[in-house]
Amino acid sequence: MDPKETKERMKITKQPMTEQPPKERVRNFYEVPYGYSEEAAMLEAKRCILCKNPLCIGGCPVNIDIPWFIRLIAEGKFIEAARKIKETNGLPAVCGRVCPQEDQCEKVCVIGKKGQPVSIGRLERFAADYEREHGEVTIPEIPKWTGKKAAVVGAGPAGLTVAGDLVKKGHKVTVFEALHTAGGVLMYGIPEFRLPKKIVQSEVDYLKKMGVEIVCNAVIGKLDTIDELLANGYDAVFIGTGAGLPVFMNIPGENLIGVYSANEYLTRLNLMRAYQFPEYDTPILNGKKVVVVGGGNTAMDSARTALRLCPEEVTIVYRRSKEEMPARIEETHHGEEEGLKFKLLTNPIRFIGNEEGKLTAVECIKMELGEPDESGRRRPMPIKGSEFKIDCDVAVMAIGNGANPLIPHTTPDLKVNKWGNIIVNQDTGKTNKKGVLSGGDIVRGGATVILAMGDGRRAANAIHEYLETGVW
Ligand SMILES: Cc1cc2nc3c(=O)[nH]c(=O)nc-3n(C[C@H](O)[C@H](O)[C@H](O)COP(=O)(O)OP(=O)(O)OC[C@H]3O[C@@H](n4cnc5c(N)ncnc54)[C@H](O)[C@@H]3O)c2cc1C
Ligand code: SF4
What we know:
Blueprint: H1 3-10, H2 22-25, H3 38-45, H4 55-59, H5 66-74, H6 78-86, H7 92-98, H8 105-108, H9 120-133, E1 149-153, H10 157-168, E2 172-176, H11 185-188, H12 197-209, E3 213-215, H13 226-231, E4 236-239, E5 245-246, E6 259-261, H14 262-271, E7 289-293, H15 297-307, E8 313-317, H16 329-338, E9 341-343, E10 346-353, E11 359-372, E12 378-382, E13 388-391, E14 394-397, E15 401-402, H17 406-410, E16 436-438, H18 441-444, H19 449-469
Parallel strand pairs: 1-2, 1-4, 2-3, 4-16, 6-14, 7-8, 7-14, 8-9
Antiparallel strand pairs: 5-15, 10-11, 11-12, 11-13
Helix pairs in contact: 3-5, 3-9, 5-6, 5-9, 6-9, 7-9, 10-19, 14-15, 15-16
C-alpha cells in the first residue's frame, strides 16, 4: 500500500457499534450489540493498512489470515471474507462475539500503537453474520469415507472443532454429549444477551450437514467407557469434556437455600430457560439482593443475568482490584452501564441464614494486595478487623470450575495431574493411552473458546495422521 493511502486510512476513526441502551436491555435477554451495518464494516475495514508483516495473525490462536479477510470486507466481498475466516476458524460468529481480542489480535495491531486498533472481532462477527443471514453458507465437499471412525466426547468448542476437521478429511465422526443439546459452555454458560443460542445452533447444524453425527443425552463413563468406545469400533477417541465441576470456597453457610454455583445458576437460566418459569419447567430464586462472588467472565455473566431478573441490587464481590479482574473489559463495562455494584478487595468469610435455612447475608472481610503470587498477580491478604455484612437472599459462587472426574475415574490408566486435568502432549493432544486424545478445558482447566478450538484443530490433525498411518 502506498504511503499516501496508508496516511488516509489512518485518519479514519474507529467505527462504533450500536447497542441496546442499558436501561432497556437490562429488562430483556436480547443481544446487547447490534453489529455493524455494511457501510460501517467497510469503513472500519479500511482502517487496516494491510501490513507486510501482520502481527495480528500471530496474535490469533488459530492464525486467521486477518488482513486478507479484512481486505475482502473493505472491497464489499462479505461472503468471500466469511469463507476466508472459515478456512481456519469453524465458529467465526461465536469467536467474533466472545473472544478476548483485546488480549490477542487487537492487542498487537499496529494501528493500536498510536490510537484504537482495528476492530478485528467486530469485523469477524459481521462477515459470519452476513453469510448466515444471506443464506449463502456452503457445505464443503466431503471426501469418500476412509473406512475409519472417531468418537468425540463432549460437544463444546474443542469437540466440535475436532468433529468438523475430521469429517472434512473423510472420517466418520460421532459426538457424544451428556446434555440434551450440543454447544457446551456456548449453550449452557454464556448468556443469550452475549451469544444468541440460534447462532450456536446454526454452527452445530452446519457440522451435522457435513455429516457429523451428534448423540445427545449420552454420558460417557456411564453409557460406555472410553475403553468400550475403542473396543466397539472407534479407531480413536477425543475427550473434550470441559471443566464443568463447580468450585466452592468451603466456608460456613454454602449449603444455605439461595447459594448457587455459577454453573447451576447459568445452566438453569440459559439451557432450562428458568427466567420463563412456569412456561418452562425449571424454577430459579430471583432474589431481591444478589451477591456474585468472583471477577471473571462467569461472574460477570451471572451478575448481568441476575440483573435481568429485576432484583433491587446485584453486587460483585471480588478479592482483588478492578485491574486484576480476568473478565473481558467489554463485559465489565457493560455490567457497569447496567447498574452492577462492585465490592472490590473484598472476600466472603461466611454465609448467614435464618431459621428456615434461607440465605439472609454474607459476611465479608476487606483485603489488601501483597506481593505477586505464582499467577503474577498481587496476592490478596485479609485486613484484620475489617469484617462487614452485605444483605442478600441469593449468592452465586463464580470462582472457577474444576475438571469433571467421571472420565478419569472410569478410565483409571489415563494420566491426570493433581487437579484432575488430563495430561497431553501439547503439540498433538495425545494422552498416554493409545488412540485417545484430549484438549480444551479438561486439559487446560478453564481457558477460552479459541484456545479450546486450537486444541481441537491440533488433535484432529494428530488423529488424522494416526488413522492414515496407524503410527501412534
Ligand atoms: C459462564 C462462562 C462464560 C465464559 N465466557 C467466555 C468468553 O467470553 N470468551 C471465551 O473465550 N471463553 C469464555 N468462557 C470459557 C469457554 O467457554 C471455555 O473455555 C470453552 O467453552 C471450553 O471448551 P471445551 O470444549 O473444552 O468445553 P465445554 O464448552 O465445557 O464443553 C464440554 C462439553 O462436554 C460435555 N461433557 C462433559 N462430560 C461429559 C461426558 N462424560 N460425556 C459426554 N459429554 C460430556 C459437557 O456437557 C459439555 O457440553 C466462559 C466460560 C463460562 C463458564
Ligand atoms: S496488524 Fe492491524 S493494521 Fe496490520 S494487518 Fe493486522 S489488523 Fe491490519
